[in-house]
Structures are given as structure tokens and as C-alpha cells.
């Protein structure tokens, strides 16, 4: 099966991400699409396994196979966790609905480490741009502030909300370069400190609910295998009936 066919025919959940999901879209903003597909279980029984992710078939489209998606979510990967909480859902079947019902099972204090590592990597890129050009890429600075705010609020409340809401104007002012780099740096430091303090009193559990996610994945794989077997039996029945009719 071609990788793009897996996305077209077996997507269980698809959403819009990026600025549009964050409430930060402006005229000309791209539409980033993310999704999760469920590769039919029999594809895992051969030597060549299905892909863990697929780019396309549309522009700015990226999808993960369900197992890989769950692995990353259990590790508190920021991109994957935020994908689960997009307010802009475009495609959802019963399996995808059950995946969304598991959102809380993926959340844990590991989010502090994963979001912090990601933020530090982005900060190094901003600092490099300032050294090279005298100013950061303001769009990236805005998104880093958004990420830090999101991480802080997640640790404070135990809930992940990615739409910036009434903070939109302040973030867009950063994007337009209307806020000094010194002020942006100050906000980043303050947010990092607030996030660290929030960790000590966070309602998030120490670990995600591995058992609940594993059970979901097992049941989903089993259902896929049984469905494939049932479909095969139907096809065989049609073929046998056709042969009888030709006699």
C-alpha cells in the first residue's frame, strides 16, 4: 500500500495546526494540517512494515501512524500533544474519537522537560539570528513566547489549551517587531521562571497512563485484524458464489 493511500483511506483523526489553531492567523497564513492514520494490522505481518509517518499528500500536511503518535504523546512531545488539542478538527471517526478521549492519559509532568527542551532549542536559534543579523526572526519569537505560555498554563492547571484567546494582540505585536528584543527576552525569562515554579504544585501526574493507552492500541489493532479477516471472508464468499453461478 502506498504511504499516501494510508493517509487518504485510513486517517482516524485530522486537524489544522499552526497559527490558525493557535488563534494567531493573519492574512496569508499557511494552513498546516496534521493527522493520525491507522495502518491495517496485516501490514505489520510482513517484512516491510508500514511507515511511522507520512508527508502529504497535500501541501503542509503531515500524519503519524497511530502507534508512533501514541509513543510521542506519552513522551510529552509538544507538537503531538498540541495536535491532540487542536480546536480545528477536520476528520474524525470512532477510533479517532476514542483517541481524543484519551487526551488526559498522555499528560504528565514530563511535559515540563519536553516543552523546556524544545523551548531552549528555539531560543538558541533566536540568539543565533540576533548575533548574525542584529534581530531575531520575530515570528519565531512570537511562537516561542506562545509555547512558554502554553507550558506554564499546562503545569498550573493540568489542562492544555493552545488557542491564545485574548492574548492574541500582544503576541502579534511581537510578530510585527513592535516589541523590543530586550522586552521579549525579559518575558521569556519570566515565563521560564513561572513554569519552573508551577512544576512544584502541578496537578499533573508524575507519569502518563501507559496502561490505558496500551489497552487502546491493543484493542484497535485487534479490531483491525478481525475486520480484515471478515472482509476477506466476504470476498471469498462472493468469489465462490460467482464460480457456482458460472457452472
What is the CA–CA distance across the termini?
35 Å
What is the H/E order? Answer: HEHEEEHHEHHHHHHH
Main sheet specs: 5 strands, mixed
Measured by DSSP, the beta-strand proportion falls in 5-15%
| Helix percent band | 55-70%
Task: Output mean pLDDT.
Answer: 92
* Overall geometric form: globular
Low-confidence stretches: 232-241
Radius of gyration: 22 Å
How many individual β-strands? 5
How many helices? The count is: 11
Strand order of the largest sheet: 3-4-2-1-5
Briefly note the structural class of the backbone.
alpha+beta
Structure description:
With 247 residues, the protein is an alpha+beta fold. It is 60% helix and 10% strand. It has eleven helices and five strands. It has helices at residues 3-10, 19-22, 66-74, 78-84, 94-101, 103-106, 110-133, 138-157, 168-175, 181-200, 210-246; strands spanning 11-17, 32-37, 53-55, 61-65, 89-92. Strand 3 (53-55) and strand 4 form a beta hairpin. Helix 7 (110-133) packs antiparallel against helix 8 (138-157) and helix 8 packs antiparallel against helix 9. The protein is globular. Residues 232-241 have low confidence and may be disordered.
Amino acid at each position: 500500500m502506498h504511504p499516501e493511500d494510508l493517509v487518504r483511506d485510513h486517517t482516524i483523526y485530522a486537524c489544522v495546526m499552526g497559527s490558525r489553531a493557535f488563534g494567531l492567523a493573519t492574512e496569508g497564513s499557511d494552513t498546516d494540517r496534521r493527522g493520525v492514520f491507522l495502518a491495517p494490522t496485516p501490514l505489520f505481518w510482513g517484512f516491510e512494515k508500514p511507515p511511522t509517518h507520512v508527508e502529504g499528500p497535500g501541501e503542509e500536511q503531515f500524519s503519524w501512524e497511530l502507534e508512533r503518535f501514541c509513543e510521542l504523546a506519552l513522551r510529552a512531545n509538544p507538537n503531538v500533544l498540541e495536535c491532540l488539542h487542536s480546536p480545528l478538527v477536520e476528520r474524525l471517526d470512532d477510533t479517532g474519537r476514542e483517541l481524543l478521549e484519551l487526551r488526559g492519559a498522555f499528560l504528565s509532568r514530563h511535559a515540563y522537560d519536553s516543552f523546556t527542551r524544545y523551548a531552549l532549542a528555539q531560543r538558541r536559534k533566536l540568539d543565533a539570528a540576533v548575533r548574525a543579523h542584529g534581530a531575531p526572526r520575530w515570528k519565531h519569537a512570537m511562537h516561542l513566547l506562545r509555547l512558554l505560555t502554553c507550558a506554564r498554563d499546562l503545569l498550573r492547571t493540568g489542562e492544555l489549551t493552545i488557542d491564545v484567546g485574548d492574548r492574541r494582540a500582544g503576541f502579534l505585536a511581537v510578530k510585527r517587531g513592535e516589541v523590543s528584543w530586550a522586552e521579549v527576552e525579559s518575558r521569556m525569562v519570566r515565563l521560564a521562571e513561572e513554569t519552573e515554579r508551577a512544576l512544584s504544585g502541578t496537578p499533573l501526574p508524575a507519569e502518563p497512563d501507559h496502561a490505558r493507552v496500551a489497552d487502546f492500541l491493543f484493542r484497535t489493532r485487534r479490531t483491525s485484524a478481525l475486520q480484515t479477516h471478515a472482509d476477506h471472508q466476504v470476498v471469498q464468499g462472493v468469489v465462490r458464489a460467482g464460480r457456482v453461478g458460472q457452472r
